[in-house]
Structure formats: structure tokens, C-alpha cells
Amino acid sequence: MEELRTRLLRPLERELADGARDRVVAGGLEKLVQNLARPFPEVQRTLSGYRGMDLQTRLERLKKAIALLGGQAKVPSEPCPSATPPLGPDLDAPLGVLELGPGGRKKLAELGLRSLRDLLHYYPRRYEDRRTLGSIRDAEDGSKATVVGKVLSRELVKTPKKGMQLVQVRFMDAWGWKFTGVWFNQPWVLKQVPEGASLVLTGRVQRRGGAISMVVEYFEDEGGESLSTGRIVPVYGAKEGVGQAFLRRLVWRALQAFPHLPDPLEAYVKDQGLPSLDFALRQAHFPDTEEKLEQALYRLKFDEYLLLELKVMITSGGSALLGRMFKVTPGMLERFRATLPFQLTRAQERVLGEILSDMQSERQMARLVQGDVGSGKTVLAAAALYIAAENGAQGALMAPTEILAKQHFENLTRYLYPLGVRVDLLVGSLSQGEKKTVLERLRTGQTQVVVGTHALIQDGVEFHDLGLAVIDEEHRFGVLQRRRLLGQRPDVLVMSATPIPRSLALTMYGDLEVSQIDELPPGRIPVRTKLLTQKTRLQAYAFARQEIQKGHQVFVVTPMIEEGASEATLELAAATRLREELESLLPEARIDLLHGRMKPEEKDAVMERFRRGEFDLLVSTTVIEVGVDIPRATLMVIENAERFGLAQLHQLRGRVGRGGLEAYCILIAGETSKRTLERLRVIEGSNDGFYIAEQDLRLRGPGELRGLRQSGMPDLRLGDLASDQEIIERSRALAQAILETDPYLDKPEHALLKRELQARAEAVGFREVI
Ligand code: ADP
Ligand code: MG
């Protein structure tokens, strides 16, 4: 508590000394307060809405908050002392300095461009290579072309019928070919094309017999600063009324305004092998060569991810939070291993090492362990919980549903009971009496490890000394729910079977370290997967009959359409129809139904009966609980498989083959477009969850990853999560290194970086975790 208090006081005092301008904490003071001041609700209240307050109120509230925390409020000697060193030319100057008319300024504001900084970071959408201009003779009829032409003669013509004014200019291109340039109803052009001038013309080419003409769309004098021709030309995302040539000129002028653009990473670029920001911005807008453009974009992407990581790390207080330091002795590990009937895989060993070094360090562990279903995450959780127990702390494992909690309880008991660790279960369905007993045991510390559902974070649950929280399948828990469990700041281990590509995990969960178990225990038989179409669909059920005759069980999944009442009805109707169809196809099979409109208890009851083998075939919408083991289930049939994300299909497939029996998955494609088949073949051809997730990301784009859709994907301008893993890892490492020595970016060498972060924080989106 004491340490948290000083940790919070420091930035508040600095903020006060800086004149309450909300510049001390990158990302805003309030964010930090929300995270760090959880144990001080009065302070949180005092500073809530800080950003929106006027200066005077801010100063008062700050003083109050500092007093609440027992600090000394040092009033700044002058009203607004400048804590930020002079920064050279001002990137934050409004675009007006470029001598824009009000109309231009308004249009740019519509593009979100207000300052020079905005403009310089308004990267081109794409580029056109106009370095070498061809001859007009090679341009096809109707095509768009850019050529250089010398004016031979010109005239203004009035068409007799419609009374249009035509400017007609005879040109000769560099190869000696003649053509006519035409402008409709722009008589003023005549003055801009003096005889003998050399112009760069872009327009649509028309060929009539031997005659070539061009309806000119735009043209420039070839001399001078040619921005639209003779080079690799940037093409911006423009709006109606904001021309490309206008934007190019504007960006050019902005670049000219800075003899040398200041580089927030000045101190690091050399070690990192990065080009300077000056180079990067100039080349990104007006590249000399493809190679330089590539280097430039690399640097800008690097910055984009770096800012994203910094923002997440700073606002979550992540790397700065102190946690518990656990002791891990070789003896403990030996005892744990001795109870296992198997050896840990290499991947498990690696991840266990990562977990243990987190637990031993003074920092609060915040680690996400990802691994396919069956990769052996639970064993690692057991190991961590055992270490916590040996250290005299309590551990909790929270699962999203009751049936999963019970399964974990059984497994953990199996691992931990022989080691003398007292494991309890806390779920909603316990009787009042049982609940009371468990709560009492939790409070007094008799319980060493508790497994439960949301019941664990309900009021009235009090731990004696919670040291480690393990959260299974985290995506089902809201951030708030987790915060409650974390009120005591235990070390946190999140386990997820959703194979998120590492690049995505690092950005979505910027403040969680990510470990991956990318190897299955030996002897696993991969699920054999086959893709069928509507025509061959019934083969799936012929096969299902064979499996059922062997005494095996079958899942049939039909897609959930989407949430919402009427859709849920549709979905139920579809599932019911499918059930009826299967009942007539397989009259001998015992069939039951699981769907999204059931209450959690009802779902649990159906799953429990299926697990006990009371029926053979389960028709289900996608509500099958991730992680429930049905050992005799050997076949998973998925109808309209194209409606699912690949990662989700892979997860569904993981429901079968968990009992050592040969297992199968049949995907039925509801439609057979090339794209659909390409996607589904990824599943057919691979059993590697991470490979599949990456393909999914590549084929669908991150926003569509199921289950992640609403969670606020980072909004990246340049970054492409599907291919940027290396850059992400590097920028993340740098962000960590920087914050390690300077947690709030207070050092003078980070002043520019901080300013950059403040200025661009809104532009780099992120998802808040913990
Ligand atoms: P997950 O939680 O990742 O789905 P589990 O930890 O439940 O995986 O492990 C799945 C099954 O594999 C369990 O029955 C477990 O006992 C077994 N298992 C775990 N690790 C190994 C290993 N290294 N070698 C053999 N079996 C293992
Ligand atoms: Mg599991």
C-alpha cells in the first residue's frame, strides 16, 4: 500500500509542478489514476474527469489528491512554468502557417488534419511510379497516360452546337510524336500553355485513325518542383474537393519548413539500425527509390507500434507494478514433477520457466499463456499454484462456466492433492451451507487453492492472502470482472486456447507478456479432417452412424447466426430442423440438442449427460463449452463451416479426440466459392492452431477474427498485424527498455518521444486489459 501510495504521489506532484497541463503522464493523468489509485477511491473520485477541468479546478483537485495521499503540495512558483525543453521547429503549429485559405483549412480539417504533425503523418495510400514517362504513341485508346509534351501551337475553339469552349494545343512528345491536348470549358488554360513550354500532362487518350488526342485532367510545368511526375508519386486518401496535387504541394511545403525533422528516437536509431525520422518522413511522401521507401515505411511502422506499446504500458502502469516475490526452490519443482505421470514437453518447460521467472521477480506477473486445446496449459497452472501454496499464499483459478470449473477442480485435485495442497471449489450451485464453509476456509486461509466461476468475484468472497490468480479462457471475462479479482494485485496468469497470432496478442494485450505452448504432448493423434460440399453432405452422417455403432459419440455443430432475439429464434429453428433431419437419418441414435437460448444450468446439464454417455449425438449451435472433455467423442461434423472463423473451426475440432481414440472432423461447405474452399482447406491441411490463426488473419483481416470483433482492434495506419511480427517484437522490446529506465518518460532525452506520444496517443488505438 505504502509503495503504491508513493508511486501515485510522484506523478501527481510532477503534474502540479508542471502547472496541471496534463502533459506529465503520456496518455493522460486520469488513465494512470484509474489504474494506480484503485485502492484509493477518494483520490480517484477527486481526479475523475481531470482532462475536462479548467486549470484552476485541476490545481485545486491535484492539491486535494496529494493531501489525501499524505504528500506535500508544492505550488508552482509561476503559474505555468515550462517543464518541456524547447523543441525546435513546432510540429504542432496549425496548418495555417502554410498560408492556406480558410476553405483549404476546412477541407483539411475534414481529413482530420490540423497541425503540421498531422499532415506529415498523413501517409500516402499508395504510390504511382511516374519516373520514366513513355511516348504518347504507346498509350492505348481510352487509357489514362502521363506524358511530357512541348507546346507547338494552341487555339481556343468554340463548338458551334453546344457553345462549348475548347482549348486545343498541339504537342510533341520527347520521341517526336505529335498529339492534341484538349481542355473543355477552361479558356483560362490558354494563358498557362505558352508556345515552347514543356508540360507534364495526365489524361485520357483517344485514337482516331492516325490522330492522337488527350483530354487533359491535369498538367504541370515540367520545370520547377515537379511533385506529380518524373518521380514515384504519392497518392493520398483525399476527399472531394481536396486534390492530389494540392496535398502533394502542401506536404512538400511542410517538409520544406523543417530543415531537419526532430527525431524522438534520436538516442536509439543507431543501435536499432533504423533510419532517422527525417529520412523516413521525406521518403515516405516523396520516395527516391523503392528501397528507400521500404526503409522509410519500416521506420514509420516501428514508431506506430512503439507508441502503441508505450501507451498501453504506461497507462496500465503495467511494467511498474510491484507484485509478490515468490521463492522457487529446486526441491519444489522436483516434488511437483515427481507426481506427474509424464514428462513436460519442451514447449511446456519453456513456458514454465517464463512463468516461474515472473513469479520470482518483484514485478507483478501479467502473463498470457496460449496453447491449443490439450497442449497442457492446466499442468502449468497447477505448477504455478503449487509454488504459490508452498510460499504460503493462496491461489485461485477462475473458469468461465461451472462445468469447466468442475473439470479444472478435478484436474487440479489430481495434481495437487498428492502434494498436500488443499483445493476447494466455489460455484453458484453449491448449497448455502457448502458455500459458507468454503468462504470461511478462504477467509482463514485454510483453502490454499480455490477453483471457481464468477462466484469467486462476488461480494462476500474474501481471501486470506491471494497471491496468484489463474484465469482460464480470458476472453469471456470483462475487464471489470478481472479487476475485482485483481484488487489484491496477485500475480496473474491468463490461459487461452484461442490461438491468436503472436503479433495480434502483443498488440491487443500490450501489457501482458505472451507465452505460447506451440507443441502438443507426444502420442497425440491429430484429428483427421475432411471437407465435403452440399452434394456429398450425407456421407458425413453415414460415417457418424459407423462411429456411433462403435460406441463413440458425435458432435454436429450448426452456426449461430448472430446475437439478437430474432436471430436466436432462427438459429434455434435451424438447429431443431437439423435435429429432426438427423433423427430420421439415424433412427437408432440417441440425439439431443444444445442451443444458445438455454440457461447456463441447462447447458451444463446437457453437457454432463453427454459426458456420461447418456446419448450418442449432440446437435449444437456454437455454444459447446470450450475445454469440456468428452473422452468418447470421436467425430465433429460442422455444417455451413464457411460461417465460422478458421480459428474457431480449429477450436471446435479440438472437442474431439481427447480420449486417445482416433478422431475425425468433417467440414460441410454451404457454398463453394473459391475463397471459401481456400479458407476451409487451411483447416483440412493443418492441425497447427497458430498457423491456422495466422492464415485466418491473412484471409479475413483482423477485425473479423471472431470473438475479437468488438474489442477494439488497434487502429493502425501502416501496420499490418498479419505480417509485422518482427517489427512488433522489436518495438515492444525497445518500449520496455525505455520505460525500465524512465517509467514516465521524464528524462530530457525522452521529451520529444513523450510529446509525440501525447500528440498521437489518440491515433494509436489499443485495447485496455486489466
Ligand atoms: P489444456 O489445458 O491446454 O487443454 P491440459 O493441461 O488439460 O491441456 O492437458 C490435456 C491432457 O494432456 C491432460 O490429460 C494432461 O494430463 C495431458 N498432458 C499434459 N501435458 C502432457 C505431457 N507433457 N505429456 C503427456 N500428456 C500430457
Ligand atoms: Mg484446458
From TrEMBL:
<dbReference type="GO" id="GO:0005524">
    <property type="term" value="F:ATP binding"/>
</dbReference>
<dbReference type="Pfam" id="PF17191">
    <property type="entry name" value="RecG_wedge"/>
</dbReference>
<dbReference type="GO" id="GO:0006281">
    <property type="term" value="P:DNA repair"/>
</dbReference>
<dbReference type="InterPro" id="IPR045562">
    <property type="entry name" value="RecG_dom3_C"/>
</dbReference>
<dbReference type="Pfam" id="PF00271">
    <property type="entry name" value="Helicase_C"/>
</dbReference>
<dbReference type="GO" id="GO:0043138">
    <property type="term" value="F:3'-5' DNA helicase activity"/>
</dbReference>
<dbReference type="Pfam" id="PF19833">
    <property type="entry name" value="RecG_dom3_C"/>
</dbReference>
<dbReference type="Pfam" id="PF00270">
    <property type="entry name" value="DEAD"/>
</dbReference>
<keyword id="KW-0234">DNA repair</keyword>
<keyword id="KW-0233">DNA recombination</keyword>
<feature type="domain" description="Helicase C-terminal">
    <location>
        <begin position="536"/>
        <end position="698"/>
    </location>
</feature>
<dbReference type="InterPro" id="IPR011545">
    <property type="entry name" value="DEAD/DEAH_box_helicase_dom"/>
</dbReference>
<keyword id="KW-0347">Helicase</keyword>
<keyword id="KW-0238">DNA-binding</keyword>
<dbReference type="InterPro" id="IPR012340">
    <property type="entry name" value="NA-bd_OB-fold"/>
</dbReference>
<dbReference type="InterPro" id="IPR014001">
    <property type="entry name" value="Helicase_ATP-bd"/>
</dbReference>
<dbReference type="InterPro" id="IPR033454">
    <property type="entry name" value="RecG_wedge"/>
</dbReference>
<keyword id="KW-0547">Nucleotide-binding</keyword>
<dbReference type="GO" id="GO:0006310">
    <property type="term" value="P:DNA recombination"/>
</dbReference>
<keyword id="KW-0413">Isomerase</keyword>
<comment type="function">
    <text>Plays a critical role in recombination and DNA repair. Helps process Holliday junction intermediates to mature products by catalyzing branch migration. Has replication fork regression activity, unwinds stalled or blocked replication forks to make a HJ that can be resolved. Has a DNA unwinding activity characteristic of a DNA helicase with 3'-5' polarity.</text>
</comment>
<dbReference type="InterPro" id="IPR001650">
    <property type="entry name" value="Helicase_C-like"/>
</dbReference>
<feature type="domain" description="Helicase ATP-binding">
    <location>
        <begin position="358"/>
        <end position="517"/>
    </location>
</feature>
<protein>
    <recommendedName>
        <fullName>ATP-dependent DNA helicase RecG</fullName>
        <ecNumber>5.6.2.4</ecNumber>
    </recommendedName>
</protein>
<dbReference type="InterPro" id="IPR047112">
    <property type="entry name" value="RecG/Mfd"/>
</dbReference>
<dbReference type="InterPro" id="IPR004609">
    <property type="entry name" value="ATP-dep_DNA_helicase_RecG"/>
</dbReference>
<keyword id="KW-0378">Hydrolase</keyword>
<keyword id="KW-0227">DNA damage</keyword>
<keyword id="KW-0067">ATP-binding</keyword>
<dbReference type="InterPro" id="IPR027417">
    <property type="entry name" value="P-loop_NTPase"/>
</dbReference>
<dbReference type="GO" id="GO:0016887">
    <property type="term" value="F:ATP hydrolysis activity"/>
</dbReference>
<dbReference type="GO" id="GO:0003677">
    <property type="term" value="F:DNA binding"/>
</dbReference>
<comment type="similarity">
    <text>Belongs to the helicase family. RecG subfamily.</text>
</comment>
